[in-house]
Amino acid sequence: MGEHAGRWGRRSLLRAAGLLTGGAAVGAAATTQTTWIADRRLPLAGGPASATLGSRQQDVGGGAVEVSWGVRTDERLVALTFDDGPLPQWTPMVLDTLDRYAVPATFFLVGARARQHAGLLRGRLDRHEVGNHSWAHHDLARLDAHGAYDDLRRSHDAIAAATGRAPRLLRPPWGHLGGAVLHAAARLDYRLVLWTLQMVEGEFPHDPAGHARRIVADVRPGTILLGHDVGTERRLVALRGLPDMITGLRARGYTFVTVSHLLGRAAQV
């Protein structure tokens, strides 16, 4: 009786192990299937992460998007850029300084603000260029392809109406990129522009000259420099130090150019 019990015990254990192994395989397959179904319900396919829209022909303008953080060049060129404007308390101060030193810059404008404050820009952008920085500075990387496109199209039209020129560059808020942003940028034939170096106002409270020295020391040929003409009080450190920044970089042999000019020079190298 003990012998038979031992034999049947071993047989039962082997059978149970087989069932467990088979069950694990089935369970793994079921888990994979469930995960795939769950992923399909997440905002991946057709959502913020997806750079495609549906299964039909993609309507994507020229069919490609280029993303630039800066350029590789031996020329001492730097592109000064300002985000988030225009606003009355800030933008005129920046434009006045740039006019005084005959410095071109690229302004990545928020469409709603451009429409509301179009008078701040009228007649003052001759040496400058404009880019799209979204309609209301919401995170485009959280929108699906339709939402990102609608936001940027609305902003595009407002900027064109306010400035008399259609933007050809896009800088998404906070530099957040998602597939939907890429898809929308392709549809609008935009070039995506991020930055090489950002002003660090928080590290130099009440010290515009110190902040300017830091930026002047950090710039390299082909740098795209990010500043803001909107924000909290601390950002005024950079704007008040802008004259020192300009004269300091010129003393190092740098020439200020728009982003498009910088990207064009890189293409010629």
From TrEMBL:
EC numbers for this chain: 3.-.-.-
Q: Which GO terms describe its molecular function?
A: hydrolase activity
UniProt keyword terms in alphabetical order: Hydrolase
Task: Please state what the protein is called.
Answer: Polysaccharide deacetylase family protein
Domain spans labelled NodB homology: 76-257
Main EC class the enzyme belongs to: hydrolase
